[in-house]
Design brief:
Distance between the termini: 13 Å
Order of helices and strands: HHEHHEHEEHEEHEEHEEHH
Structural class: alpha/beta
Largest sheet: 4 strands, parallel
CATH architecture: 3-Layer(aba) Sandwich
Length: about 300
């Protein structure tokens, strides 16, 4: 999803030869395959948007895959990029790197100051490792490897699996199906009270390219986390209940919203402190309601084509 959005914006920008590979063409967990790819293609810049991702159900069900696959992807791509002389690299992380009980909104300097949320700890540890990989190659080899930490992303290209996807696409699919069948209610995991921040994938792509283009001369890693990692978000959060109501409105669902409190809520609030990126000159442009409406339109188009991603 994010990689596709970044490619679209790079295509509009022009002036680049874009090198890509699908997961079927290149297994990023395979060290030898990644080494051969890097040696063959010799890229000047690498953007690492690939990851194994999912919502609370997927994280709880497949913790070993989440930590293993993400650590292998990061280690292989970052190390092999270094070996072929790539000086500029951007890797995408996640807001779950921050401690469970961190002060809100979550600032960059909160990293490694407390215990992680247990429901996604394996994924978070892998993403923290990615940050530290970039930091270490910068420190030892003078590379310019940067990390951006997005909040919850959504938009065209998302995964709409009813259980393994993130909360917004999962809700969109369920509310759409309920609206089509005239179901009297939609059941939502948890109490509906946790608050989450969402960012449209096109905004994330724009922010990623903005960070890659930043001239970081004058920043000191010891006093400013810019050279370590930087938060990317909308700076606005909503409750899951409010999100569900918004999705219900967009999809035309007229029934009841029921909350299954026997299911886990996860972290009660996750809001990014995006003040550093805003001071540097970038902020989100797409409102949540507009983004949901645009994404739902795209989802309907994919349904007609039989091309909805749901795995």
């Amino acid at each position: 999803m994010v990689g596709g959005a970044i490619l679209r914006q790079l295509g509009v920008r022009g002036g680049h030869t874009l090198i890509t590979a699908t997961s079927a063409e290149l297994d990023l967990t395979n060290q030898a395959a990644v080494a051969a790819f890097m040696q063959d293609k010799r890229p000047d810049v690498v953007i690492l948007a690939a990851a194994k991702v999912g919502g609370i159900v997927a994280n709880n069900t497949y913790p070993a895959q989440f930590i293993y696959e993400n650590m292998m992807i990061e280690a292989n791509v970052i190390h092999q990029a270094h070996l072929v002389g790539v000086q500029s690299l951007l890797q995408l992380g996640s807001s779950c790197i921050y401690p469970r009980d961190v002060a809100q909104p979550m600032a960059e300097d909160a990293l490694l100051t407390g215990i992680l949320e247990p429901t996604n700890e394996p994924y978070a540890v892998a993403k923290i490792a990615g940050i530290k990989l970039c930091e270490s190659y910068n420190r030892q080899y003078g590379r310019d490897y940067r990390s951006v930490m997005p909040t919850n992303l959504y938009g065209p290209g998302d995964n709409f699996h009813p259980e393994n996807s993130h909360v917004l696409p999962a809700l969109m699919r369920r509310f759409h199906e309920a609206a089509q069948t005239g179901a009297p209610e939609v059941v939502i995991w948890g109490s509906g009270k946790p608050r989450r921040e969402f960012l449209h994938v096109d905004d994330m792509a724009a922010a990623s390219l903005f960070v890659m283009d930043l001239d970081t001369r004058g920043y000191e890693a010891e006093t400013d986390p810019m050279l370590s990692h930087i938060n990317v978000g909308s700076g606005v959060d909503v409750s899951i209940a409010e999100l569900a109501q918004m999705v219900a409105e967009v999809t035309g669902f007229q029934g009841r919203l029921a909350f299954d409190t026997s299911k886990p809520d996860g972290t009660m609030r996750k809001l990014m402190d995006v003040s550093r990126l805003k001071r540097m000159g970038w902020e989100a442009q797409i409102t949540l309601h507009d983004g949901i409406a645009e994404t739902y339109g795209w989802y309907l188009e994919q349904l007609e084509k039989g091309a909805v991603r749901a795995k």
